[in-house]
Amino acid sequence: EVAALLGIPDGVTQVALFPVAHTIGTDFKPAARPPVEGITYWDTWGETR
After folding, report:
1. pLDDT: is 15 or 22 the higher one?
2. Mind spelling out the 3-state secondary structure of the chain?
3. With contact defined as beta carbons under 8 Å apart, do 16 and 10 qualify?
4. Which of 13, 27, 32, 43 would you label with 6, given CA atoms 20 to 30 Å apart?
5. Pairwise CA distance, residues 23 & 27, whole Å
């Protein structure tokens, strides 16, 4: 139902992530990530701002 509502193509697998962490120490650094603009869409598949 969600795929149809958002226009997600049939070949795309939908997932939900629930991050859980156990940390050791306090030496935290930002993770290397691609720009969010390249991996997110708004309201429907393929819609960017």
Report:
1. 15
2. CHHHHHCCCCCCCCCCCCCCCCCCCCCCCCCCCCCHHHCCCCCCCCCCC
3. no
4. 32
5. 10
